[in-house]
């Protein structure tokens, strides 16, 4: 699966965004190691705190179906009625990625409507992170 194709799926997932409060629409497409793909969008709530980001929607959909091994996520976000602009994942989503993904390997692809793309490793967006290994006494910093 190419980064371009994954980004197309993120853009399509953005169509499902429920964001009547921020009017900021985000879609994500998560590539699993077995080649399967899970998509997600942001889903907001009148009470605000129950809202969830597109990235976590995609990751939780995948985990809930037994997937634990992920290679990459494409993210497309931007204001309603406008073109997507490069949108980096929030800190909470980065930490959720850290739970399931190898910081040295997991790729985060940001896309804009212009076709511009930026690719980061999780370790670049979440340096010196705390993860499952810390609780097993096997600290692995990256
Ligand atoms: N949002 C995402 O879904 N992903 C991001 O990477 C950044 C922010 C959502 C949360 C909220 O619904 C809206 O965008 C504005 O913050």
From TrEMBL:
<keyword id="KW-0479">Metal-binding</keyword>
<comment type="function">
    <text>This enzyme scavenges exogenous and endogenous cytidine and 2'-deoxycytidine for UMP synthesis.</text>
</comment>
<dbReference type="GO" id="GO:0004126">
    <property type="term" value="F:cytidine deaminase activity"/>
</dbReference>
<dbReference type="InterPro" id="IPR016192">
    <property type="entry name" value="APOBEC/CMP_deaminase_Zn-bd"/>
</dbReference>
<dbReference type="Pfam" id="PF00383">
    <property type="entry name" value="dCMP_cyt_deam_1"/>
</dbReference>
<protein>
    <recommendedName>
        <fullName>Cytidine deaminase</fullName>
        <ecNumber>3.5.4.5</ecNumber>
    </recommendedName>
</protein>
<dbReference type="InterPro" id="IPR002125">
    <property type="entry name" value="CMP_dCMP_dom"/>
</dbReference>
<comment type="similarity">
    <text>Belongs to the cytidine and deoxycytidylate deaminase family.</text>
</comment>
<dbReference type="InterPro" id="IPR006262">
    <property type="entry name" value="Cyt_deam_tetra"/>
</dbReference>
<feature type="domain" description="CMP/dCMP-type deaminase">
    <location>
        <begin position="1"/>
        <end position="133"/>
    </location>
</feature>
<dbReference type="InterPro" id="IPR050202">
    <property type="entry name" value="Cyt/Deoxycyt_deaminase"/>
</dbReference>
<dbReference type="InterPro" id="IPR016193">
    <property type="entry name" value="Cytidine_deaminase-like"/>
</dbReference>
<keyword id="KW-0378">Hydrolase</keyword>
<keyword id="KW-0862">Zinc</keyword>
């Amino acid at each position: 699966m190419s980064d371009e194709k994954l980004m197309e799926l993120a853009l399509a997932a953005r169509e499902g965004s429920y964001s009547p409060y921020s009017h900021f629409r985000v879609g994500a497409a998560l590539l699993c190691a077995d080649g399967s793909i899970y998509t997600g969008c942001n889903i907001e709530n009148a009470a605000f705190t129950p809202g969830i980001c597109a990235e976590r929607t995609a990751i939780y959909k995948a985990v809930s179906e037994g997937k634990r091994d992920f290679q990459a996520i494409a993210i497309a976000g931007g204001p309603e009625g406008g073109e997507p602009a490069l949108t980096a994942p929030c800190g909470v989503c980065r930490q959720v990625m850290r739970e399931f993904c190898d910081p040295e390997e997991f790729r985060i692809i940001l896309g804009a409507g212009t076709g511009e793309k930026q690719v980061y490793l999780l370790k670049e967006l979440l340096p010196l992170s705390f993860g499952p290994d810390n609780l097993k006494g096997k600290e692995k910093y990256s």
